[in-house]
Amino acid sequence: MTTRLLPWLFVLFMAVGPLWLGDQYILYVLTSTGIFIIGAMSLNLLLGYTGQLSLGHIAFFGIGAYTSALLSLGFDLDLGGAEPFVLGPQPVWVAFLGGILVAGLFGFLIGKLAFRVRGAYFVIVTISFAQVMRMVALNWVDLTEGPMALNNIPPLSVWLPWDGVIPLYKKEYNYLLVLAVAVVCFLVIQRLVQSRVGRALVALRENESLARSVGIDVTRYLVVATVIAAGMAGAAGGLYTHYIRIVDPDVFMFIYTVTMVIMVVTGGKGTLAGPIVGGLAFGILPEVLREVARPEVQWIIYGVAMIVVVFFLPQGIVPAVKNWFAGRRKRLAGTALGLRKETSA
Amino acid sequence: MEAHLQHLLNAVVLGGTYALLGIGLTLIFGIMRVVNFTHGELYTFGAYMAYMLAGMMGLNFFMSLAMAAVLGMALGALIEFTLLRPLKGADIDTTMLVMIGAGIAMQAGEQLVWGGVAKSVPSPFPTEPVVIGSVSVGMNRLFVLGVALLLLGGFYLLINRTKLGVAMRATFQDPDTAALMGVNRGLMYTLTFALGSGLAATAGALLGPIFVVTPTMGDLVALKAFAIVILGGLGNIPGATIGGFVLALAEEFGAGYLSSGYRDAMGFILIIAVLIVRPQGLFAMKERIG
Asked: How far apart are the C-alpha atoms of A103 and B166, rounded to whole Å?
């Protein structure tokens, strides 16, 4: 019972606590951390549950961000025909969903392509994909404004019974929105990994040829996982773009993928809570370190932290804590048993 | 026609350093099964060492080059000894994560030590280009190509003609049997990593005077080295050599005739094309080195 209630208590705490504090800066940090946590959760679906180290994950985030921004701003595209293709500004939520769809579509294409190879090849192909996306964002100036970035992106809006439709300029609303999307993503992933699909994914992570031999269509399941993960990363990108309200090609930088990987690995890959624990740790750590360390030193700490985690906590924080509690319970049960024996003797 | 020739010449000069970077990476993967994410940082390290020795301390350029190579090897050996040796037997993803962490820390360290401002290494060569018929090339670039070809040749001799090369190939084919035959496996791994790192550092030191030296110079180079290695097949040294030149050709001609903005994307477009046509790599008959 308590284990079922615990996540909801956590969500309630996260929903109320920061608002009660009312500090704008803390809200900003938590909102951006939340966006990254959504990205990390989606990466965990691939890295943790299918065992595929996708190091181009930020590409889906960026595609979602750019698509959502472009749809909400409107754009015209010269496709070489007589008339350029012109699209006026769309409602923000249409744009947001469009970003998820396009990111998912790219997930499908890349999944089909990249899962022809495994291991190191797969890793390098996914990195390359993100790099190509960065080049496209930099060079297709007609569409993306290149290094000049897309500006004045409208914020997401929401309908409130007492206010009508309002654009979300306030940090409090954005924070709650990110929290809500994170909860939805969490529930989707939870349902997924506890379903047939999830068991198939874990089976092929543990032993691909065995999974294949019992009739699991490996590539199909991998592609399904990639599409869902890409869509979620796209949603995170959409949230980012409408919150920060500017997007430039640097959104595709490798270092952001690495940040998500660190979050997943530190928290515990293949666990539902892992990306959240790791994400909170590595989302808040830079803000704590900012006071005492220069950015370069921060990154050194990040790199070293990654090595230390792999060496000493290879499973991540969540499984380690679980094991510790399980061990403690066993010890407690053991001592209780011992006491009873003594009294009976 | 002149334009073709000029592009071809540029591609050959560029391809030499690409091949150096590629074989270092592919050697480490082939023998150790490690995807080396510090490769680009070792390249950067080599360039900074050349800057420190030739630019700041005023040493002879050729001397600095040799010392940068040796220091690169030493750093490589240190990385292998402290980070990879304790992880012996770990799966490929684990070592990859450790190497990513090391790469991040090294890059930040370079930023901390040298600052973000670009440095330039003084070149001992005249700036006048050498004109051959209708094409021209800088002396410094010819020197880079010469050293790269020399190193490539020396590397082949080392792998194919020496006892050390036999031991390395044996470790690649079957580490356990090699160990039974008296090959010191740990030493082989350290040497392999040092050698690959040394090649990367040399490439960085060679290109230092041609480009400028910045802490992030290794990022793109590392990605290109990965592309080269995929083109040739992981662990395939001739494949990486040819892959280096293929990538250079694609970049030169792509930049010259298609769009210069996508120059650095050529490698990835090539990879995607290769994956569609031949997922095992262009030259992968079967996995082997030598």
From this structure: 49
Q: How far is CA A161 from the centre of its chain?
A: 31
Does the beta-carbon distance from B223 to A132 stay under 8 Å?
A: no
Q: How far apart are CA B4 and CA A133, in angstroms?
A: 29
The verdict on residue B269 lying in a domain is yes
Delimit the domains of chain A by residue range.
2-314
Are the Cβ atoms of A128 and B35 closer than 8 angstroms? no
Nearest to B24 by CA among B237, B264, B215, B219: B237
State which residue of chain A sits closest to B230, comparing Cα positions.
A121
Instruction: Choose from A113, A121, A126, A264 for mutation: most chain B CBs within 10 A.
Output: A121
d(CA A153, CA A66): 10
CA–CA separation, B42 and B68 (whole Å): 10
Distance separating alpha carbons of residues A292 and A287, to the nearest angstrom: 10
- Among B34, B78, B87, B104, most A C-beta atoms within 10 A, so best to mutate, is B104
- pLDDT average, residue stretch A288-292: 80
Cα atoms in the Cβ-side hemisphere of radius 13 Å centred on B285: 5
Q: The tokens of B38 are what? A: 């510090």
- Provide mean pLDDT across the span B121-145: 82
Which of chain A's residues have a Cβ under 8 Å away from the Cβ of B30? none
Does pLDDT of A284 surpass 70?
yes
CB contact burial B205-226 (16+ within 10 A = b; e otherwise): bbbbbbeebbbebbbebbbbbb
User: Does the distance separating the beta carbons of A296 and B109 come in below 8 Å?
Assistant: yes
Assess if residue B283 is contained within a domain: no
Which pTM does this prediction carry? Answer: 0.85
Supply the CATH number for residue B237's domain. 1.10.3470
The answer to whether residue A145 scores a pLDDT higher than 60 is yes
Q: Using an 8 Å CB-CB cutoff, list chain B residues near A124.
A: 35, 226-227, 229-230, 271
Q: Residue A339: its pLDDT value, please?
A: 55
Residue-wise burial string across A2-29, b where 16 or more C-beta atoms lie within 10 A, e elsewhere: eeeeebeeeeeebeeebeeeeeeebbeb
- Read off the pLDDT of residues A207-228 as tens digits, 9 standing for 90 and up: 888 888 887 888 888 888 899 9
Secondary structure (H, E, C), chain B: CHHHHHHHHHHHHHHHHHHHHHHHHHHHHHHHCCCCCCHHHHHHHHHHHHHHHHHHCCCCHHHHHHHHHHHHHHHHHHHHHHHHHHHCCCCHHHHHHHHHHHHHHHHHHHHHHHCCCCECCCCCCCCCEEEECCEEEEHHHHHHHHHHHHHHHHHHHHHHHCHHHHHHHHHHHCHHHHHHCCCCHHHHHHHHHHHHHHHHHHHHHHHCCCCCECCCHHHHHHHHHHHHHHHHCCCCHHHHHHHHHHHHHHHHHHHHHCCHHHHHHHHHHHHHHHHHHCCCCCCCCCCCCC
Lowest mean pLDDT among A307-311, B119-123, B256-260: B256-260
B101 is in which domain, residue-wise?
A: 2-122+131-277
The answer to whether residue B285 is domain-embedded is no
Across A93-97, A246-250, A286-290, B77-81, least confident range = A286-290
pLDDT of residue B5: 83
